[in-house]
Amino acid sequence: MLTPTKAELLNAIEVLNKLGERINTHAAHSVMQIPESSLGEHHAGRIGVTAIEQTSRIKIVTKQLQNWRDELLLQRSQNVSQSV
Asked: What is the pTM of this model?
């Protein structure tokens, strides 16, 4: 497996952040379209919970990518200092 570059990891993090924004925007728009009723409130609640679950998973993966990027930067700096 090829190790991703710093730029590739940053791009992946940016894409995931934008996906999280899109999910929240879509959820907010969907909730606004639901008629006011007890069933509508229940459905709106489910949309909100689903959006929170999805964005939480995205944040976890984003953090993992950031950690990987930090590890790669540390490895590269150690390799440079060892070769000097």
From this structure: 0.83
